[in-house]
Model the fold of this input.
Amino acid sequence: MGPQHTSRGPVPHGHVTLAQVAQRAGVSAQSVSNALNNPDRLAAETRKRILAAVEELGYEPNLSARALRNRSSSLIAFKMRPSRPDKASLLMDDFLYVLNAAAVEAGYHLILCHAEDGPAGEIKAYRDLLKKTSIDAFVLAETHHNDDRVAALRSWGVPFASFGRSWDGDDSLAWVDVDGRAGTRAATDHVAAQGHTRIGHIGWLAESELGQDRREGWLDACRERELEADLQAAVVDSLEAGCQAAHRMLDASRPATALVCASDTLALGVMRALHERGLRPGVDVAITGYDDSPTAALVSPGLTTLRQPIDEVGRQLIQAIDNLMAGDPRQPQHVLLEPELVVRGSSLPGPRMRTS
Amino acid sequence: MGPQHTSRGPVPHGHVTLAQVAQRAGVSAQSVSNALNNPDRLAAETRKRILAAVEELGYEPNLSARALRNRSSSLIAFKMRPSRPDKASLLMDDFLYVLNAAAVEAGYHLILCHAEDGPAGEIKAYRDLLKKTSIDAFVLAETHHNDDRVAALRSWGVPFASFGRSWDGDDSLAWVDVDGRAGTRAATDHVAAQGHTRIGHIGWLAESELGQDRREGWLDACRERELEADLQAAVVDSLEAGCQAAHRMLDASRPATALVCASDTLALGVMRALHERGLRPGVDVAITGYDDSPTAALVSPGLTTLRQPIDEVGRQLIQAIDNLMAGDPRQPQHVLLEPELVVRGSSLPGPRMRTS
DNA sequence: GGCGTTGTTTTTAACGTTAATATCAGGCAG
DNA sequence: CTGCCTGATATTAACGTTAAAAACAACGCC
Done:
């Protein structure tokens, strides 16, 4: 776009360096670097000229060189779990997307981490990655009480933030989480408002802090309305387990008429149980799930569930990391977000023609 | 684990360099580099000694330095799409996981790419990423006829492989795909084998090559059995569209008794239509989907569908890229894999108690 | 006019790696 | 003994960036 396009010809895919920009602007390479990273060290006039040259040549700093020099790569690592066959693929897909979007927005890139087995393999994978390349920070998911990963990352001094609060009251952990208790309470309130008084809960095993949290919400709502909280199950998170638990609660002497579940997977298990008994979700028994997995909108009738604001989770995680990296002296961020109740046919008695 | 652990003390998280290993082994840094990258240039004895030192110090080459020096980062980029609300999140989750696993296995890492809007934004995002850091290769998904991304990447000379074949007979493209035609044929054969003779097809709009391919499979099977292929719909991939199309085919003068769909999303739309009409999937109307999305196993009854061998897809894509990078002079790989029919209750007339 | 001060810019060196070249020792033919 | 080749190892330089230090200019102050 200028008169000196003769100098280089059709560069393969632009490999403009600091030195080239420097020459173009008639300054040293360091000044160009400063123009971009330490604007206040330059005379305003010079800076303007340099930025023009940057623009003109389409210069982008080379991240490898930066990483080498600065020991910081603008990479954030995240480890995916293998998706289990019978789980409703809890929004990993979406979560990764929004996390990456937020990361890019903030000038980072997401790099995926892979670990063979579960427990210690993950830590080894983190360590290997750190040795091989400089990783600015990690994002953890599903942290639990006494999490080894937290201990490891902390001992290495690597910034990280967790999707899932600290369950052992560790204030120094930066986390973002969704209020499962409030969510389950909202779901219970919702079915109670439909007139149900025999409201059961199908949740996870006691060792799951997350499951415990969600169960509390159901208890809260029952207590508040002075309903008996006698119908409950603590099972693994699978369709089969949800199905069996539902059968038990429907076989009880005073059977449940509404079932509040700790996950969509469990709720879908309840739907299967109703299907096997020839009962209709919503009409005969109200069902609520948790997560608003893609499946929830696609089954018939639609599944009432709680939507986690994952886009906000992603943004907040990146922000938390950004703060950590900036050496922000304030407390690491703790963000607790509210889930949103999404009402669909599975919890409504009415006619459901064309309900989504 | 050695006598000279005094030299450094508790190194933060291992930052062993080539020079340190060299000193330990009593050779130059270059020899260590050669021991790892050009084994045949060293005397066997020396090499052994060097490798011992590498092992002892736990040395891992620094990827940033390598990337800078070699202009190759061992990074493979992949762009995620935002998941649309009413789609059965087609296995992106799993795909990413297996792709990353295969990448790590082969010594690469996956980095996620983010683009704002759809068409040209993606190309811009690729270019920006390439400018910023050296990316060894790209993985594309859902390529279509005359794909601009293919043209762009090719013009830049960057290796890439595509999940989705070349629809314009371009032999120089490396791709891995799943045989949609064979899959749909298998599904059609399956319902025909149950005695159905009025088999409809709900597929995608004509401009989708993938949809066209799947439709062909249905046509193949109909022709072979001399069945009329008059019941068909070409619609967008949404639950609503599938639902409406199903209603039409069930309102026909000689209504469909089986519906073969181009996606699970459409098939779930059919299920909704049956639900609205008080009909039972499998018993009254047979349904098949495509993709074996997580949802398929979770609805009741389970949805008969076609499972794509995505783990194999992931492996083959990485392998294809590996071959490209090695400058393998043979034709770029073309791999067409067979999907697997997964039979569940939605296509079976029989009693379905406890079917998964 | 000497001399610190301040503000701006350049020079030097280093991050860790590897291609290219240089060095060196030993073997062997002339 | 000289010269040349071969195989093994060492040295140099460079990839593109930036922190730290050095250089330089302009300015006021005694």
